[in-house]
Write a structure and sequence with these properties.
In chain A, helix 7 packs antiparallel against helix 10. In chain A, the strands form two sheets. Chain A has a six-stranded mixed sheet. Chain A has a five-stranded antiparallel sheet with strand order 8-7-11-10-9, sandwiched between helices. Chain A folds into two domains: 172 residues, 3-Layer(aba) Sandwich (Rossmann fold); 122 residues, 2-Layer Sandwich (Beta-Lactamase), CATH 3.30.450.190. Chain A is built from ten helices and eleven strands. The two termini of chain A are 13 Å apart. In chain B, helix 6 crosses helix 8. With 299 residues, chain B is an alpha/beta fold. Helix content of chain B is 39%, strand content 25%. Chain B folds into two domains: 176 residues, Rossmann fold; 113 residues, Beta-Lactamase. Chain B is built from nine helices and eleven strands. Classes of the chains: A alpha/beta (331), B alpha/beta (299). At the A-B interface, helix 8 and strand 9 of A face helix 8 and strand 9 of B. Strand 9 of chain A pairs antiparallel with strand 9 of chain B, so a sheet runs across the interface. Chain B: This is GTP-binding protein. Chain B: One of its GO terms (molecular function) is GTPase activity. Chain B: InterPro entries: Gtr1_RagA (IPR006762), P-loop_NTPase (IPR027417), RagA/B (IPR039397). Chain B: Belongs to the GTR/RAG GTP-binding protein family.
């Protein structure tokens, strides 16, 4: 019964050695905590759950790192079965040999219990490393994990590596990629966004979760971290200004909440465009009108985004029915 | 007349009180985080800033170590304290030697009395973020009454003080008011803005300086609306962040339209206006046309 319940929610397990920065990641990504304040976080001693609802419902479970070596017991078997992704945090500024051994043991166990699990490694705290050293560290860690896993006869396991730091946008980017792997509708979304981009002179667009600034999906052109940062910051600007002048009496009045929309033109002709979508999501797009008139370009974008939004609503309506059906087929 | 447009501002205070950090944040687009990299200021660092087109601010950031300080009050005193429009004295609230801080303040006042008696004096109680929230107000009151007493004794009775911190919007508030005290045709701006507000049927219009995003003036009416009292500083902060992120796209931003109720647009090469409308159903073209027409009056 319990397993079924947790099945409806994709869970991400966040693991790593002690003081690797797991709680800091949770606080910064999901609670908008200032990175410097995370210096004062206490050691986590009990598993903690972080619920996070965007296009899909997610739960991020943080396991304390003190457990000296991972001792599989009955409970952890059920736990790993119900998990969609395993995120292992490695502190890149510390001696990481222990972490790698620990990681290999966890992977061996997780893979045995649940072969479908996504395994992700965050090479964390890279803000203090120089550019050359970052590459060197990543290469070293990748090679050593490969060897460790080979020894355990697990060379087929797919492991993804991300270089992250909480002091810039890399942690958001990594989490975005991780979350995206858990969204079953992702190919549709990407296709829909691609269509939108093609027909509206959009250079790049993201579907953001407003609270966490993780992007749920983007079009298939490569993601440029600078573009991502600008778009994420635009979400902040919009929400902050919007909150400042929110009319209190309006909030009390019932009726459909008006969607937030904001458009900003830059001097080099680029237009940043934000529209609120369903379920706390927002579409942020970078538009290059080139020679055409900005007004008419925006009208076309508005029209297309309307259709996109309706599409999103339909996909979501089906997504809610789907799991029940699958459940029904099984029994 | 031209010499009148050059304003000399002295930025003084003891070593480590955060003078250069302030300057870097307000005028050089540093983020609060970046200021840890700043080293000690050696002697006086001059910066010339154009403000509102025809006004030049000469900011004299005076290094605060005792060696330099002694020098300011002895050999360099006529050089430093001549033709000063504004003295901004910064006090570190965490300072161990409050008596000595005040002593240096009186020394500066003494020189000012001699060389430029018309100077305006501002004091900033800086690093307020290090004081417990419930004690801030009390500490500020005590310090201000002490300083007021001191400055009145030297012939500067109207002392204005602000609690500041680089980690929130209080810094913008303080500097806005300091800079505004230097703008000559303030009344014209104010009345023009009032007229614009009634024409556009706006809830509020705020005028910002473009480069620094300091508030120049606002059309604020006491209509009993419950608006955030700290909104000016917050907007300064938000817009400045946005300006920096638009810099990443190798451009600067021109307009921003939010929900058809908030319009941010340039008004002249030196000013930005921030318009909040009462209702959101008026056509956008009409509003933009209004903004275009009004530009003439704010040149």
């Amino acid at each position: 019964m319990n397993a079924e319940e947790s099945n409806s929610k994709a869970t991400i397990l966040l693991m790593g050695l002690r003081r690797g920065g797991k709680s800091s990641i949770c606080k910064v990504v999901f609670h908008n905590m200032q990175p410097l304040d995370t210096l004062y976080l206490e050691s986590t001693s009990n598993p903690t759950m972080e619920h996070f609802s965007t296009l899909i419902d997610l739960a991020v479970m943080e396991l304390p790192g003190q457990l000296n070596y991972f001792e599989p017991n009955y409970d952890s078997e059920r736990l790993f079965k119900s998990v969609g992704a395993l995120v292992y945090v490695i502190d890149s500024q510390d001696e990481y040999m222990n972490a790698l051994t620990n990681f290999a043991i966890i992977v061996e166990y997780a893979y045995k219990v649940n072969p479908d699990i996504n395994i992700e490694v965050l090479i964390h705290k890279v803000d203090g490393l120089s550019e050359d050293f970052k590459v060197e560290t990543q290469r070293d860690i990748m090679q050593r994990t490969g060897e460790e896993l080979l020894e355990l006869g697990l060379d087929g396991v797919q492991v993804s590596f991300y270089l992250t730091s909480i002091f810039d946008h890399s942690i958001y980017e990594a989490f975005s990629r991780i979350v995206q792997k858990l969204i079953p509708e992702l190919p549709f979304l990407e296709n829909m966004l691609d269509n939108l981009v093609q027909h509206s002179k959009i250079e790049k667009c993201f579907l953001f979760d407003i609270n966490s600034k993780i992007y749920v999906s983007t079009d298939s052109s490569p993601v440029d971290i600078v573009t991502y940062e600008t778009c994420a910051e635009f979400v902040d600007v919009t929400i902050d200004l919007h909150d400042l002048y929110k009319i209190q009496s309006d909030a009390d009045e019932m009726g459909p909440q008006r969607e937030v929309k904001s458009v900003s033109a830059l001097n080099n002709g680029v237009v940043i465009y934000l529209r609120q979508m369903i379920r706390g999501l927002a579409l942020v797009a970078l538009i290059r009108p080139d020679d055409t008139d900005v007004e008419s370009c925006l009208t076309v974008v508005d029209y297309n985004v309307d259709i996109f939004k309706r599409g999103l609503e339909q996909v979501w309506a089906h997504a809610r029915i789907m799991p029940a059906e699958v459940e029904g087929n099984k029994t | 007349m031209s010499s009148n447009n050059r304003k000399k501002l002295l930025l003084m205070g003891r070593s480590g009180s955060g003078k250069s950090s302030m300057r870097s944040i307000i005028f050089s687009n540093y983020s609060a985080f970046d200021t840890r990299r700043l080293g000690a200021t050696i002697d006086v660092e001059h910066s010339h800033l154009r403000f509102l087109g025809n006004m030049t601010l000469n900011l004299w950031d005076c290094g605060g170590q005792d060696v330099f300080m002694e020098n300011y009050f002895s050999q360099q005193k006529d050089h430093i304290f001549q033709m000063v429009q504004v003295l901004i004295h910064v006090f570190d609230v965490e300072s161990q030697e409050v008596i000595k801080d005040i002593e240096i303040f009186t020394k500066a006042l003494n020189q000012l009395k001699k060389y430029s008696p018309d100077a305006k004096i501002f004091v900033l109680l800086h690093k307020m973020d290090l004081v417990q929230r419930d004690k801030r107000q009390e500490l500020f009151q005590i310090m201000m009454s002490k300083l007021q007493e001191t400055s009145a004794a030297y012939g500067f009775p109207s002392l204005v003080g602000f609690p500041t911190s680089i980690w929130d919007e209080s810094l913008y508030k303080a500097w806005s008011q300091i800079i505004c005290s230097l703008i000559p045709n303030m009344a014209t701006y104010q009345s023009n803005l009032k007229k614009l507000k009634s024409v556009m049927n706006a809830r509020e219009i705020i005028l910002f300086e473009r480069a620094t995003f300091l508030v120049i003036c606002s059309s604020n009416t006491a209509s009993g609306e419950l608006l955030d009292p700290k909104r000016f500083e917050k907007i300064s902060n938000i817009m400045k962040n946005f300006k920096q992120s638009s810099m990443k796209l190798k451009s600067s931003f021109k307009t921003l339209v939010l929900d058809n109720t908030i319009f941010v647009s340039e008004l002249s090469p030196n000013m930005m206006c921030f318009i909040v409308l009462n209702k959101s159903d008026s056509p956008q073209e009409l509003i933009l046309e209004n903004i275009k027409k009004v530009k003439v009056h704010f040149q």
